[in-house]
Hints:
Blueprint: H1 2-15, H2 20-31, H3 44-73, H4 78-91, E1 97-100, H5 104-115, E2 120-124, H6 130-136, E3 140-142, H7 148-153, E4 161-164, H8 169-182, E5 187-191, H9 195-204, E6 208-210, H10 212-225, H11 227-234, E7 246-250, H12 251-254, H13 263-266, H14 268-271, E8 275-280, E9 286-288, E10 301-305, H15 308-317
Parallel strand pairs: 1-2, 1-4, 2-3, 4-5, 5-6
Antiparallel strand pairs: 7-10, 8-9, 8-10
Helix pairs in contact: 1-2, 1-3, 8-9, 10-11
Amino acid sequence: MVAILFVGIVGYMFLSNYSFVDALYMTVITMTTVGFGEVEPLNEQARIFTIFLILASVVIVGYALSVITEYILSKNNIEELKYKKMQRQIDSFKNHVIICGYGRNGKQAARKLLAHKKPFVVIEKEKAIEERLQMDDVPYVIGNANEDEILIQAGVHRASSFISALPNDADNLFVVLTTRQINKDINIISRASQDSSYEKLKFAGANNVIMPDRIGGDHMASLVVVPGLMEFIDNLSIVGKSNINIEEIAVEKLSSKGAVGTIKDLDLRRKTGCTVIGYKDANGEYTVNPEAEIRLEPESKIIVLGRPEQIKALNYEYNID
Length: 321
């Protein structure tokens, strides 16, 4: 409305030589379509300008009135307005991540995605956890992930990955199965508590199955067997916003400045200080500590290690978000 008001004032001052007050008055009565007479007779150019000003004003003012009316009618239900705003944000997401369950594992996953600035949506069944979600300022959907409508509301059709972090294996199994039926290409990571659930979740469509208890026990034992190594790995933090040490980068992003042949041709060590510690080919096979002469194939990725400032330099060098 301010923009159309400015355009109207400038237009009348330029086309009809109106004073500022006359141009303001003429613009306001045109925008509001009150039907008052012209300040002074308009020439042909000014009349054409007025026609377009009226058409634009009808759309803009009409929309503004609808927004104001909605606010007035809903002023006693602020939560509904917040939900609508958040749903519009979710609807704008593409290639985002959906986290099902906001318990200990789900919250940890959300922290890591925030560190990497990856858009995500949380699906939480328990209404009591909504206050925690609001405090953490994360987009969410309250409902049962077993229902197709809730998954669709979270944008499962447009999502790139799905993390099922529910405490019950049976619930994870059903959610994984439902998600796979809706989106055949989505990458699904599921939590599991029992060894017997591992193969079932894989059969249901999970790409990866994580067992937190097994990982935790293995980590504690490793602190006894190789404490120095585990302490070093623990320092490779990717939780904070400013201390990311490891990055996985698609080869296509590195080829924006020209053709990329081998790891040696990248010369990342000299350009950014980062070191390539892993290579994932197009078939998903990993090579640890790859040779410099490995040729980089399309749809492959490299894993680089560096200090936070070196990772930032890498992202800046190749314009990686």
